[in-house]
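Cross-check.
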Amino acid sequence: MGASQTAGHDRRVGSIVDLLVPPTCAGCGLEGDVLCGRCRGPLYRRLREPPGLPIGLPGELPEGLVQLEWCAAYTGTVRAALHILKYGGERRLADPLGAALAARWRSAGAAGTVLVPVPVHAARLRARGYDQALLLALSAGRSLGIPVARALRRTRSTRAQYQLGKAGRAENVGGMFEVVPDLVEVVSGRWVVVVDDILTTGATLAACAHALSGSGAAAVAGLTVARER
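Predicted model, tokenized:
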């Protein structure tokens, strides 16, 4: 299923779910929206901050990235929303979270011609039923008017990154991504923005950048909903 087909399918599924299961805010628990207006506030706190890393955070970009942006710290409501999206099956959260991604990139992004989500392994995709990074990228792409390409795939499964230290995370994902052969032309010569839910050490984004640059991407940037400090 292509990206446009996936988007159409997810919208249809979402409409059915909306009718059967009224949304509840991931932040405050009020019924009516998956993330109410007040609880969306933390996603936009960095909106007016200049591009780049704020003072007090590590100043080096993950290897292979020309720019790195994120919306919020991985705490409070943002953490709860991402956890529910990722593990609670609430796909509808991808829309407000993706809108925040788009707003941050529109404000701070230097460029970008194609969004590429960090893929989950096929086994996890089967177990979960969806890829949260793909849903986020599709939502952000619709808002930004930038196409989404499922150009990366995992060559092997890995342990969850949160279980590992910094060195272990880098080793865990090293060499584990490759560009889908049929989509090399989609990334070659392009400014690629890699989309993920959470930034920890940056090892995953660096591994994605290595694969994309090796297939001819002109530049690779990273964009995530949250950053774990």
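The domain at 3-45+60-227 is CATH 3.40.50.2020 (Rossmann fold). The mean pLDDT is 87. Passed to J.P. for a second look.
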